[in-house]
Automatic annotation (TrEMBL):
Any single Pfam family the record assigns to this protein: LRR_Zer-1
SUPFAM superfamilies: RNI-like
Protein name: Protein zer-1
Gene3D superfamilies: Ribonuclease Inhibitor
Protein origin, superkingdom: Eukaryota
GO cellular component, one term: Cul2-RING ubiquitin ligase complex
Domain Zer-1-like leucine-rich repeats region: 185-330
Amino acid sequence: MADLDDLFHLDQYGGPESLAELCFQVICKNLDIISVKDKCEYRNLLKGVVFPSEICDKLIEYVLRNDPNEDHDRFFTIFKNVWITKLKRVKVVGSNITDDSVQILANHKLLRLELTDCPNLTDQSIDYINANAENLHTLICRGTSVIIPEKLTAYQTQGYVFKIPNLRTLALEYVPICALEYNILLAGLTNLTNLDLSNSFDVGIFDFFYLIPNLVSLVLYNVKIISQAQAFVNNICHLKNLRHLDISQINPEDGVFTNPNTILSDIVNGLPQLTSLDISGTNLAGIEIVNRTIQTVEHSFYSDMYNNLCDIPGLISRVDRPLQFLGLYGANDAPCRRRNIPAKLIAGNANEDQILVAAHVYMNNKEDLMLKVISDLYQIYRYENCHRMDQALCAVLEAMEKYPTQKDIQISGSAALFYIVKMKEKGELEARLKKKNCTYTSYWNEYS
């Protein structure tokens, strides 16, 4: 992970909008410029028009953002002809598309497909994806885009769910199946390097680890693992290439482990390549030891010298090799406020830097945590304790853009913007930023 100074870039909000952005905005407001509707109101590209992937991929994002309530199936027929339109990396967010549109997209033999908050999709989409999956290396289904059925009985005979041999990244939120069926869900995906099963129902003790031996990143945010934690840890420690592990929780009761120091110690000692670890919302950081004569890890073989250099008992072995990132946001006993933490970047709520790190890490996939982060930012800037106004401005604007329908994020974000802009010197904000701020601070005027 980069240094804090590199996490946010004001460039994306500063300066005039590019010519390409302006063109996309004009086209999205009047799709008749490039297409025509048939008798059933489905759109077809105008004759003689040919679009490369650089245009098609972006066009989808702009259209969905411009008119989220339109019947999107009628728009996606523009891409039905794979000879005059090219798609490679498709991102569909907050859409009412059905499986029919997924079939159209899959016919382009995509490299990357993201389907987030598309509630009308079913497991039929899996068949369409499998039929054209030879180039697919990333598949993401988040939020209400639940394409995995509650039971995988229909897949028992063929022995697999996904036939995507080159898949490297798979993100499936809210997977409803039981732990025993992961043997089918992950069958044939031996090339996976990144797996995200956030908010899924049951992964058991992760005894299907042998199906995904090349994992580099494993995200199990808000997945309950406390009932058989030691067996779970023993299994994931077979994944010796793992560099990032996320077992953070949003509900405090789901993050209470028995023998937390031992569990954390076993994780970091069993995963030698680990550089990034998120244990937010758990008690794995243990209790800060004031009396250094107390043994801090249940089976520790480390000397008191190391105990004096580390205030998180389970991480004593990483004193000489600190983690690049450690997530401690909302963790039990406020470990982010401790002095000696063997990590270069920390997500927590002890100070402005930690909150900004949390905002960056949780921005894309952890809406519930982002609400808390934005609220914490508001509390800091309310009392003018702001030293990184540019990064703060970027973080708040990005969160409000990404979650336009999340009322609480909009309210807290608008309140934070009010104080950030107030602290900025007159004339310091560029015109484009002023336009965005005027739009967002209208929420503040409404709710103040």
